[in-house]
Amino acid sequence: MKVFTTRVIPEEGLALLQRAGITVTQWSDLTEIPAKERIAKCKESDAMLFAGGQKIDRAFMEQCRHLKVISLLSVGYDNVDLKAATELGLQITNTPGVLSNATADSAFLLMQAVARKAFFHHKRILKGEWGFSTPTANLGVDIEGKTLGIWGLGNIGTVMAKRCRAAFGMKIIYNNRHRNEAAEKDLDATFVSFDELLQQSDVISVHTSLTPDTKEKFNAAAFSKMKPSAIFINAARGGVHNEKDLIAALQTGQIWGAGLDVTNPEPMNADNPLLEMPTVAVLPHIGSATIETRNAMSRIAAANVIAALNGKPVPNPVNHLYSL
Ligand SMILES: NC(=O)C1=CN([C@@H]2O[C@H](COP(=O)(O)OP(=O)(O)OC[C@H]3O[C@@H](n4cnc5c(N)ncnc54)[C@H](O)[C@@H]3O)[C@@H](O)[C@H]2O)C=CC1
Ligand SMILES: O=C(O)C(=O)CO
Q1: For residue 100, which ligand has an atom nearest its CA?
Q2: 3.40.50.2000, 3.30.70.120, 3.40.50.2300, 3.40.50.720: CATH of 2-98+290-323
Q3: What is the ipTM of this complex?
């Protein structure tokens, strides 16, 4: 049995695969595997393990129908045409749950970095511009007691809400596809409409998946309904906000600041105006990038491969989610 991984995966997942008697071939180059090569590798393999957001479209899957599973080393599956996969009988799996803490922590970090203009001050120091501090210089804003609006109160959104409530006593409001009664009880969270979320939040943190419904939902119309003091955080997918509209909203003072772990496109160009704004903090999509979390993700991705290659039900199928 052979599996091909599109990136070098963490040791723990690799060891699980090897102990299960599976031959593992990895793409060790730091550039993305070219499409032609990817098809060639697929043809030699029984399963593939995908890391990174490379598109997995119908044309590719039509040539790889023999695969027992395409195991994603991610919770997000917006890069996969799930409808085509299901029609072609290809099983797709992901790695939910284990990355919720790390990813919420990156949103939490960004919220504070924006509130205190931390990345901006760091850049000033690097340029030798420490400057002369006065009582009215270098001011950020407090987070304590403010209202956090979570868009997408699933696994990661719930951890972000917990962190913010415990650390800063924030009031939690949320909008989600379905009401989350456990969170309403545990976090005293209030379900609101999308427009109410925009109007009432001091900080909005996006944790939805990227779907046709959520694509560019944060656009000029949405930003215009937010408070001029609001902070926008996106640690989900860059496609959920419209970048030009976000830049305009910040430049015209429609909102106060933004923290992004995800951008559209990725990587962000180094000359992007967002990178020069004092109340903006950008990270290069490192939400789940801790040693412990990436090892845990690799164990789950490996377990999905091992189950599929042994003809057992996979622990984390996502095919059934394509209609959502
Ligand atoms: N920055 C990073 O490194 C990472 C980003 N992510 C992103 O975060 C997303 C969320 O991950 P999880 O919390 O594990 O997923 P989840 O499935 O537990 O939560 C997603 C939530 O979004 C809600 N949602 C979906 N469409 C909606 C809509 N139109 N309106 C309102 N709510 C909607 C769902 O009901 C669900 O509660 C992933 O899909 C992925 O794209 C995930 C991990 C790491
Ligand atoms: O899991 C995901 O969806 C990511 O974006 C990276 O961990």
Answers
A1: 1
A2: 3.40.50.720
A3: 0.99
